[in-house]
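debug: dumping io for the single-chain case to check the tokenizer round-trip. Nothing else runs in this session.
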Amino acid sequence: MSLFSALSISASGMAAQRTRAELVTENLANAETTRTPDGGPYRRKDVVFQTGSAGSPFASAMDAAVSEGTGVSVSEIIVDQRDPEQRYMPGHPDAGVNGYVAYPRINPAEEMVDLVSASNGYQANVASMSALKEMIQRSIDILR
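debug: decoded output
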């Protein structure tokens, strides 16, 4: 694997973690949303990753014989289909005839752990790219 392919792999990991962080922040922002345009409460979303190709135009130009590595991509976004949490709030505008309001099943503590995990994954890819950049720079310096 060339250094440029490794850069592409890290970039794909950064993009995937960014998508994950965006979904977590959307979940946190809508943790108390009881009415959506689709009707009913907001539904929690989660991301599913899969390995995928991480081709690099630089890698093919530099070394056509080296096979391209794999990266990560978002294969799908899953919407939580569990029944919403029911809270007894008879004065709420979205309360049903029995006085219960449907709220999303979102645990803020769990979402924060997911956000920290996404941030750590993103930072690991940044560190990998920085190390690769340094290796490329040293290789250029040696060839001078």
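debug: round-trip ok. The first strand starts at residue 45 and ends at 53.
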